[in-house]
Amino acid sequence: MKYLLPILILFCSTPASADDQDDCLSKDASMNACEFARALQKSLAPQLPMQMSASMTIDTVSATGRLLTIVGVWHYTKDEVSTMIGEKGETLDDLSKAITAYGKNYACSANIVRSFIDNRGQLQQILRTSDGFVLSVSTVEDCTDAPEKPPAQQ
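Structure (tokenized):
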């Protein structure tokens, strides 16, 4: 089991091969989404962990093919989150759906990320609590039905 994580990291960090290039190219062949994902990862990685707000940090970023994965940590435990949303009559599933919608809206409102997604890139967003509970995993593959402006910060 202790060798599983290094193997997964090695597998997930292997660059796309030449055989995968067709999967990387935008429909008009003007952009290589795999190269763009790696470039975004390389530009973000040195800045990590990145404080996004008083209660959230981006912890990890990785690129595999045309998939860019960003892992955020919400600085509350699962129990604290459950208590907060329970007071509003909501469930963890309700929260996960709201986080997914917010994440898509936010990603599609950032010009560089929207361009990446519009050109066959994929953005996977994972949000977990400080004690490791995964609140949400979502992948943005298109920006249809996303607003043009970013949602207001709460």
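The domain at 4-140 is CATH 3.30.300.250 (GMP Synthetase; Chain A, domain 3). The helical segments are 4-12, 21-24, 33-44, 78-86, 92-109, 111-118.
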